[in-house]
Design goal:
elongated; 83 residues; mainly alpha
């Protein structure tokens, strides 16, 4: 394997990890909020946590979408030799 291919694969792995951060942060914040609400309200329903996580991840993706799309486009240009 050439050095260029190894560097490209390494960049792809770093990009994938960094693109997962908004979804993970949204899930973490929503999960913490769900746990807090469940403890305060004494309502032990698993659906509440799942719905809040879904909303949190969706909101995080909506906020981060311009950055995510710019990063993916920059990587695609690099991978296809466009700059």
């Amino acid at each position: 394997m050439s050095d260029g291919v190894v560097a490209l694969v390494q960049q792809a792995l770093v990009l994938a990890a960094s693109l997962a951060v908004p979804a993970l942060a949204g899930a973490f914040v929503a999960g913490a909020l769900a746990g807090l609400l469940q403890n305060l309200l004494a309502w032990q329903d698993a659906a509440l946590g799942q719905v809040l996580r879904l909303v949190g991840v969706s909101a995080a993706w909506a906020v981060a979408w311009p950055w995510v799309s710019a990063e993916v486009l920059a990587f695609a240009r690099l991978a296809w030799g466009g700059g």
